[in-house]
Amino acid sequence: MIDRNIIGMAFPPFAITAEAGQLRFFAKAIGETDPVYFDESAARDAGHPTLPLPPTFLFSLELARPPSNWREEAGIELARVLHGEQSFTYRRMAHAGDTLHFDSRVTDVYEKKGGALEFVVMETRVTNQRSEHVADIRKVLVHRNG
Amino acid sequence: MKTLNFDALEPGDTLPPLALAPINRTTLALFAGASNDHNPMHIDLDFAQRGGMPDVFAHGMLSMAYLGRLLTQWVDQRKVRQFNARFAGITHLGHAITCTGEVIEKFEAGGEERVKVEIRTTNQDGEVKILGDAVIAR
Fold first, then answer.
1. Which of A38, A51, A145, B68 has CB atoms 3.0–4.6 Å from A55's, for a disulfide?
2. In chain B, what percentage of residues exceed pLDDT 90?
3. Based on the structure, what is the number of domains in chain B?
C-alpha cells in the first residue's frame, strides 16, 4: 500500500535548460516531419525565435530530475507502475535555450478495485527564466498491486 | 504557418489522421533516450518479464507525442491551450498506431473562441489505446 503521507509532498525545486540537440533527437524519435521542430530556419520562418518545444516535451524535461528514492520510500515499485493519465494546460510557448523551472507536488493518492489499483496524482507548475507561467502539468500514475 | 478556417469548423468535423509505422524495439530505444524516460519496462525484456509483462511495451508518452503531431499538423502549436490523455490500453510491439480526432464543441473561454477536439490512438485491430481531448483557440 502506498504511503498516504506523500499527499502534499513537494519535490525539490528543479530547473533545466531545453537543448536544441535533444529537441532534434526527440523529433527523430517520434517521426516528426514538420521542420519547425528540427530546423531552426524553418522555426524562425514560422515566427518562433528558435526551435519550439513540442507539446509533450515538458514531461521529458522533468524526467531529468536528479534521481531520488521517494518512490521506494512511499512503497511504489517501478515494475508495477503504469501511466494512467497525462494533462497539459499551456500558457505560453517554450523554446530551445529556455530554462524551465518545475514546481511539483503529489496532490492525491487513492485506490480502486478494493486496493488492487492505487493511483498517485502529481501536479507541476512550469515557469521560464523570466518567471513567466509556461504550463501546468498533471500526471496520474497507476500502481498494480495484484 | 498553418491557418485553420476556424469559422467553418463544426462539431463532427474530423482532423486529418496520422498513421504511424508499427512499433519496434528500435522505436522504443530511441524514444527512451530522446524523451529522458529510461524506465527499463520499455527497453529491457528481462526487467519487463520480472515485472510480470510478456515483453517490453511502448511508452504512453510516445503515443501522446504522436497525438501531439496529430494536433500540430492540423493547427499551429501556439493555438493549443489544453492537451489531455487517458491511457486506456497498452501499445505493444508490432502495433501500428493511427491517431484520429474530431471536433466536438465550439465555445468561448478565457476571452477567446475555442474548439474542443476528441482525440484517440487505435492499433491495427481498431483497439483504442489512448482517449483524450484538446482545446484549440482561434
1. B68
2. 94
3. 1
Q: What is the pTM of this model?
A: 0.97
Q: Which domains, from first to last, does chain A contain?
A: 4-18+53-144 (3.10.129.10), 19-52 (no CATH)
- Written as nine digits, the cell of A78 is 517501478
Q: Within a 10 A sphere around the Cβ of A83, how many other Cβ atoms? A: 20
Q: Domain range holding B124?
A: 6-23+58-137
In a domain, B19, yes or no: yes
Interface pTM, i.e. ipTM? 0.96
Task: Report A:66-95 residues touching B (Cβ under 8 A).
Answer: 78-90, 93
- Give the gap in angstroms from C-alpha B31 to the nearest C-alpha of chain A: 5
Q: Degrees (nearest 5) of the Cα angle A48, A54, A58?
A: 115
- Residues of chain A contacting residue B37, judged by C-beta atoms under 8 Å apart: 60, 63
Report the residue from B68, B78, B87 with minimal CB separation from A85: B87
CA distance B138 to B130: 25
Does B83 map to a domain? yes
